[in-house]
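Changelog note: in this version the structure field was regenerated for every chain. One regenerated record is shown below for reference.
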Amino acid sequence: MTLSGAWLGIDFGTSSTVAFLRRGDGTVTPLLFDASPLLPSGVFADDDGPVLTGADAVRAAAGSPAGYEPNPKQRIDDATTWLGGRERAVHGLIAAVLRRVADEACRVAGTDPAGVVLTYPAGWSRARLAVLAAAADAAGLAGVGFVREPVAAATYFDGVLGHDLGQRQCLVVYDFGAGTFDVSVVRRGADGVEVLAADGLTDIGGNDLDAVVVDHLRSLSADPVAWGRLDWPQSAADHRARRSLWADARSAKEQLTRHTRAEVHVPVVDVTLHITREEFDAAARPHLERTVALTIATLRAAGVSREAIGGVLLVGGSSRIPLVATLLHRTLRLAPTVMEQPELVVAHGSLFLVDQQDRLEPPPPPAPVVATPSTPVVAAPPAVPSATPPAVPSAVTSRPLPTPASEALATAQTVPPPATPAEPAPVVPMTEPTRDPATAAAPPPAVTPPAEPQAQATTPSPSAAQTAPEPVTGPRRRRRVVVAAAAGVAALAVVAALLIGRPWDNGTGRDPSGDGSPTGGSQPAATQASLDSVRRSAPGCEESDERVVWTAVRASVTCSAAATTVSKQVGWDIAYTQSYAELRMSLRDRQLPGAFTVAFTIGGLSAPGRNGNRNGCGGLAVHSAPDGHTYDYFNVCGDGWVEFVRIVNDAGTGNQTRQLTPGPDQGSGPAYSVLVTVTTSAVTVTVSNNVGGSETITAATASTTSAYVSLMTTWRNVGATASFSNFTYSATG
């Protein structure tokens, strides 16, 4: 096919944007920006100058970090963001990057492109795609069509690499970028490439592996004052030093893909240190094993056997890490296809669909355009500066083929709670969340021997359930989604909740079993199928898998679109361990497996009514017995205090504590990423503050078996809260 004019293919990425130009004669070449095919996706804006992109933005950020947004794609769910002293529309920042690409294409081709292909992740909602379309329109792009990234990658696999996927063979697209991990299973059908299944991890990306390098350097240089300046820069010089450190850490990570050793100079500390590939692999393995585990889960969801896999294509810059291919090869028994520049695959492959323009997706309906003031907004800028470095993810070590088991919880004694204010009614999350919940968390208990726990499952009253809650107004940093007709969907969801009932409320205001146990009552019979993982944005809300049982104990539970808030209904006036507000997760009619991991984000910690409350605390307990008398639990507090406590037969046997630098204020306090790894011999807890700092505690387990886990608000006062999101349970053995 001969094209009349050039076409432009753009892969707008988290840290880099890639574009290819296809001329009328069919030749395809990459666009170069400052002699590189990778255009930094960051943007810089100040009060009166133009929005800068690429290397210009990076250079400008050295003198004014508050004007720099390094990852506009991670703001896709935010209508606006604070940048350069004013509020700006996110789609306008993305448009600046797309306009830079279009200008370069026009310069190279001598005319504007006849058409543009924009790629997007397979898991994106229509709302996110609408924001990208609005950005393309604001950038002046004409003739825009859209294609999912794994479809473009599969087309590259065929058209460029020359692999022929048969009708019955599938391609695994393993896309490991800077900000996220995505995996898709695709197959060529009669109407072209189709996506059979897709999934992703929003808390793992190359930025998080940069943090692995920084953490290693931190462990080798004990200078808390210098690291305090690097973690919390106050001067322009410290900001430059911080940016230099993270840039060098990224370069070291990339060097380790080619060599076995890399050196990094740590500014302020003023020391040059080294990291070996073996050291990097050991620290990065838990993160990478999560991606492999999700790859297996996605293949299972697609119903694809190992024999039906025709290839594994590695996409994204982070996929060139040698351990990625090693782990995939060992697990799938199939050697992945590794490219020299895996960042270029998607943009290049997108242009092979120009010959089949009927297979390009048209732009979605326009997203609501958020007007931003032409003059600076008279308000304080957000607490989290856009120059904040990547968060350290909660790394879940996962392996395929687990076989979970669970026992029903034993009956717990009912304890009437003291009078408390009316509970907010749980909200059934909408399919497309509109706002983030006001995150909240509660404190770690003091180390005193607990009394015998008396668990009661208390839930919002039926009357409260009929009252729609007020919308959450707190801003969310990374995941708000604009949803059309949200009010109508919310109303339908609330009605459905009333008809179907919540997992912890059978319409009587009490637990279905009447005693705090998640089993019993009129719940449906359990299925015997094994359950390898549970992944929930808002744990315990709208549970659709009858094998998973959630039970609220001494807690009121409020559901939002992307998080669950657990509020305490009793105080320490009753007894130490009888006061914790719990949201228990168990597997119906079976015990938890011998080895598993739990990861989640906890934030919005609050502890009303008491001085010296550490700003609230919360965490997770691993109960080795269904009676609740023996368990391990940890807390993290708003001030960064981390504590691990062992309880055996209601007696405290010891504790470990750490002090972590608090993370940035997310609007209602700091948020922390948590990973709990359980084996038959040990429990390991890692808490990250999302600015490069983390603390790890390891202890021998109280028992070789686990009955259930509990998300907990632990601070002593009635009304203390903790919010949980991004919950992942994975069986590992």
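Spot check on this record: Confidence is low (pLDDT under 50) at residues 369-528. Residues 16 and 234 are 28 Å apart (CA to CA).
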